[in-house]
């Protein structure tokens, strides 16, 4: 079934979300069989980095959902539809990364420590203002959208990866691009009585905090997984550095998009990259479900 949500932005929302945007829930399933231990081109560094990322997604995406839902009251009908579709997409992402994480564990990787660290960090957010959680979600959603666009624009990132795992990351990337403005538009709604300066200050500060924690924790997690593969010390650190900044260099490549986040008046849809979705959409047409 195909019932994408068409977002009609012909309202005074102060957001450049495309008027013809559709957010489509693709109920795909992956990785129910087996995959190679080093599924990323038979190489440990890309495998460990993405395994570490995936280990954070089940709890992380549940946090995103709650942060956005906490501010849906009073949202205009279009934003309310965006939020519903966002929630459905994120629920499916959680399910598929749980399945993928299980395969990593089947190969002997202990990722429970990563999950536990994420749980401990999220526990610290329960007593802070909900708008701060939304600002953190907005920053992390920008990270996922930046990486998603890079993965789809440059197929070499997953060119030699296990085909089943590659499809999962492509599917996830499509939907991250599609809903990249939802948390941001929710933030605009939740802070509609704020000054532009106050809005900019919070989102910029949270991006700096998120960036520091993201790389500190993901690099720690990746090095931990590499140690489980017998790769430690300078070899592990240099290999991870090369993977992230040289070849394929995802961190180096997303730097301009990261800097753009600090521009006054920034919005995720300042750059319309839906053409990337069209490159892969046909692979997933058989797995569409109603977003309502």
From TrEMBL:
Keywords: Hydrolase. This is Metal-dependent hydrolase. The lineage of its organism: Bacteria, Pseudomonadati, Pseudomonadota, Alphaproteobacteria, Sphingomonadales. One of its GO terms (molecular function) is hydrolase activity. InterPro entries: UCP07580.
């Amino acid at each position: 079934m195909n019932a994408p949500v068409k977002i009609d932005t012909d309202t005074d929302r102060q957001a450049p979300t495309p008027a013809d945007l559709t957010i489509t829930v693709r109920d795909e399933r992956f990785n129910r069989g087996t995959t190679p231990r080093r599924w990323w081109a038979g190489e440990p560094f890309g495998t460990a980095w993405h395994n570490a990322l995936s280990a954070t997604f089940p709890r992380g995406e549940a946090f995103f959902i709650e942060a956005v839902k906490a501010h849906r009251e009073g949202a205009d009908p279009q934003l309310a539809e965006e939020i519903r579709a966002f929630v459905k997409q994120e629920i499916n992402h959680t399910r598929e990364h749980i399945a993928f994480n299980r395969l990593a564990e089947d190969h002997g990787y202990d990722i429970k420590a990563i999950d536990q660290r994420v749980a401990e960090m999220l526990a610290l957010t329960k007593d802070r203002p909900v708008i701060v959680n939304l600002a953190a979600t907005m920053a992390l959603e920008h990270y996922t959208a930046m990486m998603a666009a890079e993965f789809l624009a440059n197929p070499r990132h997953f060119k030699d990866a296990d085909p089943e795992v590659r499809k999962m990351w492509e599917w996830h990337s499509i939907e991250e691009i599609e809903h990249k403005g939802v948390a941001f538009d929710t933030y605009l709604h939740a802070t509609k009585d704020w000054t532009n300066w106050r809005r900019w200050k919070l989102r910029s500060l949270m991006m700096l905090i998120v960036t520091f924690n993201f790389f500190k924790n993901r690099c720690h997690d990746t090095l931990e997984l590499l140690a489980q593969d017998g790769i430690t010390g300078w070899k592990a650190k240099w290999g991870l550095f090369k993977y992230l900044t040289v070849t394929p260099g995802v961190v180096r490549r997303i730097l301009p998009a990261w800097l753009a986040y600090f521009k006054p008046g920034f919005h995720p849809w300042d750059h319309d990259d839906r053409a990337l979705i069209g490159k892969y959409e046909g692979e997933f047409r058989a797995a569409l479900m109603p977003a309502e």
